Amino acid sequence: MPEHDLALLIQAARDAAPIANSYWNTDQRVTHKEDGAGPVSAGDIAVDTYLRETLTAARPGYGWLSEETEDDPARLAAERVFIVDPIDGTRAYVDGQTTWAHSLAVVERGETTAAVVFLPQHDKLYAAGRGTGATLNGTPIRAGTAADPTGANVLASRPLFSAENWTGEVPAMKRHFRPSLAYRLCLVAEGRFDAMLTLRPTWDWDIAAGSLIVTEAGGRVTDAAGHPLRFNSASASSPGAIAAPAPLHAALLARLAPR
């Protein structure tokens, strides 16, 4: 990992928070993306602009991929790229809820090397560097040790529990939910929940940061078919994601219907 990338992301996330907070819980302008892809707020755009200008000025040779910036194919030729969701959990953000996050990552040749997920309303900053461990507000965190899907506390949307997604009976798991996918990953890294699953196509900006935080906390993250995650592809997406301690990850993968 290039020296100081993680420190750069931490500072950028903290500096973006006052911008996001200035729009949060106000009558800000909100539009809606095509094909039901969700809302985009004035706060999203303001934070995206700040992060893009700040991070690319600090690392002019890095590519840029963000949910709120028009995609530039030049990123595909960059050795390193910033992958950013300025506000992950926009629906919660515009509704005045508190569980939204800034999600920032540096990806090198498809693998995340530095990651930050910051929840300003909770003052929770998760961070990880490749090979250096994961932290919450500077304190090391570890994923849990659950191995059996039965009784596991799982972060997932309700449709995941449909019978067609599983081989045999749906495991008797306890379902929980948080609006921010990046935050869900961090909650697994912190050991507060046993697993996070999504079977829908998943954008890089939603999982590039959180996946490294889980891995550095001792958990395992793959796509929904069990393949390693690779970021900064042309599609900028993965076919779902599974995050859990390794034994539970294997058990969940064995119970899921083939994909």
Structural class computed from helices and strand pairing: alpha+beta
* Uncertain residue ranges: none
Content of β-strand: 25-35%
Helical residue percent?
Answer: 25-40%
**CATH architectural designation of the largest domain:** 2-Layer Sandwich
CATH fold group of the largest domain = Fructose-1,6-Bisphosphatase, Chain A, domain 1
Shape: globular
How many structurally independent domains?
A: 2
Please state how the strands of the largest beta sheet are arranged side by side.
3-4-5-6-7-8-9
How much is the radius of gyration in Å?
Answer: 17 Å
Mean pLDDT: 95
Distance between the termini: 33 Å
Main beta sheet, described? 7 strands, mixed
Give the CATH superfamily of the largest domain: Fructose-1,6-Bisphosphatase, subunit A, domain 1
DSSP strand count: 14
The gist of it:
With 259 residues, the protein is of the alpha+beta class. It is built from six helices and 14 strands.
Question: Topology of this protein?
Answer:
Layout lengths: L4 H19 L6 E3 L6 E3 H17 L4 E4 L13 E9 L1 H5 L6 E8 L2 E9 L4 E6 L3 E4 L2 E2 L12 E3 L18 E3 L4 H9 L5 E9 H13 L3 E3 L14 E8 L1 H10 L4
Parallel strand pairs: 3-4, 10-11, 10-12
Antiparallel strand pairs: 1-2, 4-5, 5-6, 6-7, 7-8, 8-9, 12-14, 13-14
3D architecture notes:
By secondary structure, this protein is an alpha+beta fold. The protein folds into two domains: 136 residues, Fructose-1,6-Bisphosphatase, Chain A, domain 1 (2-Layer Sandwich), CATH 3.30.540.10; 103 residues, D-Maltodextrin-Binding Protein, domain 2 (3-Layer(aba) Sandwich). The chain is built from six helices and 14 strands. The strands form three sheets. It has a seven-stranded mixed beta sheet with strand order 3-4-5-6-7-8-9, sandwiched between helices. A five-stranded mixed beta sheet has the order 11-10-12-14-13, with helices on both faces. It is globular. The mean pLDDT is 95. Keywords: Magnesium, Metal-binding.
